[in-house]
Structures are given as C-alpha cells and as structure tokens.
Amino acid sequence: MVVVAQMGSVVCSLDAELGWGFHDLEPLPTERVEAGRRGWSTMLELCEEFDIPATWAVVGHLMLEGCDGVHEDHPAPDGWFERERTDWWDRPDLRFGRDLVDDLLQSSVDHEFASHSFSHVLFGAPSTDRELAVAELECSLEIADQWGQHVDSFIYPRNDVGHRDVLAEFGLNAYRGTSPTYDGVRGLFDSTVRDQTMLVEPTVDEYGLVNVPASMFLFGFEGPARTVAESIWQDPMVLQAKRGIDEAVRNDGLFHMWLHPNNLTHPRDDHRMRAILEYLSRRRAETDLTVETMGDVARRVRVPRGVDGGTVAADGGIMGDN
Ligand SMILES: [Zn+2]
Ligand SMILES: [Zn+2]
C-alpha cells in the first residue's frame, strides 16, 4: 500500500536572517555577516531566472520598522539583544531587512514565506523554556500578520529542534528536521562512495506537524578542502546536489537542499547556486519532477491521512511500502 502517491520532488529552503544568525557569536564570522544582503538578492534573482519557488524562513525581527535594542517585554535572557545596542547600533542593515522582505514578497516566483523565529533563539537549548519559545512564535506571527502573511512552516535556528508542541499550538504545519546525512566531507563520502541515499521521508509527528527533513546543506564543504577539490574536479557540492536531484527523479522521492543567503560570500558561491538551480530547472522540464515548498509537502502529506487509508505509525511516521 502506498500511502502518499508521489512523484519526485525537490525542496529548496533558505534561512534568511542577516545579522541575526550570528548576533550571539564571538568572534563574528565577518564575511558571512556582511554577505547576507547580497546573498539574499542574488538568490531571489536566481530563483526568478529559473522559476524555482523556495521556502524562505525569515527572522521576524527583520520586519520591524525599528527597535530600542532592549525588547523589555521579550523574555530572552539578559544580554540577548546586546549586540543591537552596541556594535550593531549603527548597523540597521544587519538588524532590519524590510526592503529585502518586500523583494521576496513581490517576487514573480511563488515563494513560501516561512518563519525562522523572531530573534534566532535556539529552541533546543536547555535555557530556552516554553515561555521564550512562545514569545518567539508570538512575535514572529504577529509581525507576519501585519504584513498579511500566513505562516505554515518553521525552520529552527541552527536546526536546533525543540518545543514542537508550541509550533503546533500556533497553528504551524511543518518544520525542517535534521538531515540523516552528515554535512560536508563525510556526507559527500557517504553519498558518493558509499552510495547512501539523499532522499528523505516526510513524517507526521505526535503533534500533527509534518517533519520535512533536510537532505543536504549546500555549503557544508568549504575552506581549503573546497579550493583543492574545485581545482581538480567540478564543484563537489554541485555534483552531490545533481545526484540528489537525479535520485528524486529516479525513485520518485523527496530531495531537500538548504542554505543561508549569507553562504553566498563570493562569486564562486553564486556560480554554485546557478549551476544547481539551472540543473533543477532542466530536469523538471525533462521529467515529471516537481519543485515544491515545505508547505506544499506538508499539505500533500497531511491530506491523505485517514482519507485513503493512510496510517500513522506509532512513532508518528507515515507508513508506506516504500
Ligand atoms: Zn531589536
Ligand atoms: Zn539561522
């Protein structure tokens, strides 16, 4: 019995955060911090050029018009917003991004607007209690609502999954779960040499949320190893992404790739993304492959449940024969 009739599909998700992905880090990875805006615009352009709808998980704070850097009503631990009041007080371009969110919403491509929390709180951290998780959701959904946006999907900051019950309580449908494949060199080895699959299986958890796990982080193989590899072969991440896309076509499965816009720090990163999206667009034209958002996946996974005899497994996963 096949529960979810499925053609091959590819999801691309982006963690759109500008400075918020780094505000709690010391020292700051300056190159990444400064690349957030250019990467955002470049990814929007590439998605438009190849007509690839993606899930853009946006940090809610970016959508504020301004703030005092204190956020007194927010239950975050003392010091959480400190960078706003100090180093980044004169860097509104890292703290706010209404122009970029506008560009996203006005894109000719039907992107999914999703949430990446309000201030990049780590949901799985022991110090993140329920009250903080609720506040992050509340603030994000409130600002989204002011922008006329409904939120279906959530991407956990640093993929730190936690407080899933809170997501469900706020009416979300989907989140991106962690990848079964290692990032970087180890993942490359597992998928190429050991021929380990890069397809993932969306499952429904005990709260009714659909976990759309990541297959592959597109920038997990960086630094000197990347430079050496690229001087000998093609960009290994492009090769691996192509394998994932081809596997989705061949086995009618789901391949889910993800990145941060701020991973596009150099032209060679733009080239990587162009090569991957161009290939995806070509394979979609040649086959019955579809490109979906996380929200699309959640809708098709949830609908068949109980309608055509779909069964929810004891561990919350959807059971099927493949
Ligand atoms: Zn603020
Ligand atoms: Zn993030």
Describe the protein's architecture and organization:
The chain has helices at residues 30-49, 82-85, 92-95, 98-105, 130-146, 164-169, 184-192, 223-232, 236-251, 267-286, 294-302; strands spanning 9-16, 55-58, 112-115, 153-154, 174-175, 203-204, 210-211, 216-217, 254-259, 290-292. By secondary structure, it is an alpha/beta fold. The chain has one domain (8-302): TIM Barrel (Alpha-Beta Barrel), CATH 3.20.20.370. The longest helix has 20 residues, at 30-49. Mean pLDDT is 90; it is low at 306-322. One zinc ion is lined by residues 15, 17, 21, 116, 120, 157.
Count of the separate structural domains: 1
What oligomeric state do the depicted chains represent?
A: single chain
Mean pLDDT: 90
Question: Could you give me the name of the CATH homologous superfamily?
Answer: Glycoside hydrolase/deacetylase
Share of helix among residues?
25-40%
The CATH topology corresponds to: TIM Barrel
Question: Which ligands are bound?
Answer: zinc ion
What structural class should be given to the helix and strand makeup? alpha/beta
Distance between the termini: 9 Å
The fraction of residues assigned to DSSP E strands is: 5-15%
Largest sheet: 6 strands, parallel
The general outline is: globular
Number of helices: 11
CATH architecture: Alpha-Beta Barrel
Q: Roughly how many Å is the radius of gyration?
A: 19 Å
CATH C-level: Alpha Beta
Helix/strand order, N-terminal first: EHEHHHEHEHEHEEEHHEHEH
